[in-house]
Amino acid sequence: MKNTKKITLCAMLAAFSVVLLAIGALFQMLDLSMAVIASLPVLFAHLELRRPYPWLLFIVTSVLSLLLVTPKTAPLLYAVFFGFYPILKTGLEALPRAIEWIFKLLLCQGAFWIYFLLSAYVFMFPEALMPSEWLFWAVYALVLLAFVLYDFAVSRIISFYAFRLRPRLTKFLK
Q: What domain range is 71 assigned to?
């Protein structure tokens, strides 16, 4: 695929991701799920286009969504974790299993703390202020559990794409 086609495809995927994040902001109960779904174009770009296009797609989508979409919950979730995780996932899975999961959990924990600090002290989200300490740690444990499920789901999506969709899409991606 020529560079102009790759850039055009990335621009369309970025626009699609920003629209998904805007839908997540419009219907606030969908903000987390739309941040996850908006990460799928980055996964597609990583599998098909390779470097530097997935990173460019992530950066453009993050900047545009943080500038254009309000409230900022879905764009912030995307920018802090869901946007770049599909790119790093394949590299982390090349490591031995125990080290892979240590790095993945550290990455998730770091993203959680960055999101919490940004939402509480920069964007001043009222839901970032937990009424009690035990509730904060319960949410923290649920985030780690949800991350493990998300990682498993992304692995299944990669397998589905590689074995079912990619053979059908190769004629369109020349």
A: 3-169
pLDDT tens track for 32-64: 999 999 999 999 999 988 889 999 999 999 999
Q: Is 174 domain-assigned?
A: no
**Number of other residues whose CB lies within 10 A of the CB of residue 109:** 14
Cis bond upstream, residue 52 (ω within 30): yes
Tell me the pLDDT band of 168, cut-offs 50, 70 and 90.
confident
Instruction: Give residues with Cβ within 8 angstroms of 107, minimum separation 6.
Output: 81, 85, 88, 92
In a domain, 115, yes or no: yes
Residues in the chain, total: 174
Task: Please state the pTM of the whole predicted model.
Answer: 0.88
Q: Is residue 106 classed as helix, strand or coil in its secondary structure?
A: helix
